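Look over this record before class:
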Amino acid sequence: MPEEAGSSERPKTFVVRTATMGDVDDMTRIHREGFTEEPQVLYCYPLRDQYPEDYWHWTRKEYTIYLEQPQKFVVQVIEAVSTRDGKVVAEAAGLAVWNVAVLVKAEGPDLGLDKRRDANKDHCIAFYDVAGRRFQTYFAAFAEKQVNLSALVVHPDFRRRGAGTMLVDWRIKAADAKGWPVTLCASPMGQLLYQHLGFKQIATEVVRVEGEDETLTSAVMVLRK
């Protein structure tokens, strides 16, 4: 964020905390502005710029559903905290969604595929079909003794400052204390971060609609210490 004229701002530090319903709009904004080049978003929601109200509505609903299931999902936000003109200012900088009870059935999300105009319906169905089989295909051997990273995004204004690492490290330490692995599926954009943190790729996941050449490819990754 540009510094206001005449103001003085000390360097930012990051603080991770549990998200609340009061964070939903910030999380939706971070998702919208942070995933502009995310392959899964480009694949599933190619018309998000033409129909921004649809993209906002259904993304916001998805994060709301995560927050409504604390027995299954831990949702965190990371804030950039600074002192500006003697006042402490906290700005939402990123978020992470963790599935901490992988055997507990999740509610939704309602994808709204018959209502929203921003989505490629066939691509969404293909993606969620593959994602729905991911646990049984790659992670079933760990059963309930694993933590799965469902989503991670840092706003572009705060990247390359360690915010993503902080969000992942927080849960890695909690899983490590139990002797549990951390599992995830990474886009090419996120794969370098996870490799840096010690994750190993165990498979490549490919989404493709029958009859199309376009594919969506992701790296299936595991961290075991």
About this structure: Confidence is low (pLDDT under 50) at residues 1-10. The first strand starts at residue 13 and ends at 18. The two ends are 38 Å apart (CA to CA). The longest helix spans residues 121-139.
